[in-house]
Amino acid sequence: MNIENYISSGIIEAYVLDQLTEQERHEVQQMAEQHQEVRIAIIEAEDTLIAFAQKGSITPPVSSKNKLFQDLGIEIQQPPVEEKKEVEESLKANTSTSEIRPAVKERSLYQYISAAASIIAILGIVLSFYYRGQWLETEDRLFSLISQNETLAQQYNIVKNQADQYASNLDILRQPGIENVLMDGLDISPDAEAVVHWNKNTNEVYLNAKKMPYNEDAYQYQLWAIVDGKPVDMGVFDVSGDMTGLLKMKSINKPSAFAVTLEPRGGSANPTMDQMYVIGQI
Amino acid sequence: MAKKPSALEYLYDNYSAALFGVIIRIVKSEEVAQEVLHDIFMKVWNNFSAYDAGKGRLYTWLVNISRNASIDKIRSKEIKKTLKTDLVSDNVHTIDYANSHTLSTDGIGLEKVLDQLPEELRFVIDQMYFKGYTQTEIAEEFNIPLGTVKTRTRTAMRELRALLL
């Protein structure tokens, strides 16, 4: 599957807007695990959505906050913005009335104190903005670390599953009598490739289809063996997700070649020749 | 995140304005928007474990549950009918609303950004983001090929990204 086409198909946006079915979500997550481009596209779309919501911010009335905290039985720790302003204004009012006081000495003392207080207050406000910025940045980094951690855990699981699959593949390939038949891609899909492991002693057939393109739901791949010049059905299979494991197909005696075609779901009685993806002679 | 009372305050102070902006543009009534916002924070607080970091960032999760709750609200209230007959004047109403009721001037900025999008892209964003239609539903409802809806979604998000970031 072409990653650029996949990303520009609009599915990433639908994913970020939470408009996919559980299965489709899962597919996008799998693609994201396998392709960094998809991960980046998701993060970019999320950033856009966040910036979009941020840009449209409308502060709800203070009464909303009060009601919520009351209903949850939680005390508000920071006074709401309005109250802060009132406090500041009453502070200002206090300092201005003090200036009217007549005594010269007292006035200058009050002036010093109020000047000092203003400077401290301004410094405090500047610092609080600075720390708030830093705090938000830290919070963002924390969330991105949590999601990275999650991704790593998922990747670990994938690698572990693959290792288990490889071990069981090795057991199959070590059996005596195994012949490996490489099937190369045809014009329809030159990059495709698949390998049949045919056991000439037991006639068992295993298929490695890791390098086949994903098929759509309406279709399925079908493996054929050529025996005495005629195609014999060897079973259908899907290519999706991780294809490390070998597929057990039908057994066959004395094949001369193997081929894979794409057929309507469920398979066909005869191969559709112009939908042949790979073929290989023994 | 530990469920300390101050965590709720942190969540509320940091996200309520963005979420309220999302909700009010969908439900188009300050009263209903307050109700939806309240319900969302109650749910998030009582059931924080519903958040799964693997499914996306906290912020996008909150935005999406706000959108979904708001869309459910208008659909359940049959406001939908009247909205459909008069899409244009409703949009105008939203903008007026933002102008007259907003506490921060930021709220109007979003409409200005949206106005910069070509009509067909803005339409897709309206239907998906504010009305909650899926790409398939838009294609069927408005007789646009699904492929076109999908590319427009992609283009719209890229243009928004360029305008916003």
TrEMBL record, chain A:
Domain Anti-sigma K factor RskA C-terminal: 115-272
UniProt keyword annotations, A-Z: Membrane, Transmembrane, Transmembrane helix
Stored InterPro entries: Anti-sigma-K/W_factor, RskA_C
Bilayer-spanning residue ranges: 109-131
Annotated protein name in UniProt: Anti-sigma K factor RskA C-terminal domain-containing protein
Protein species of origin: Marivirga lumbricoides
Lineage: Bacteria, Pseudomonadati, Bacteroidota, Cytophagia, Cytophagales
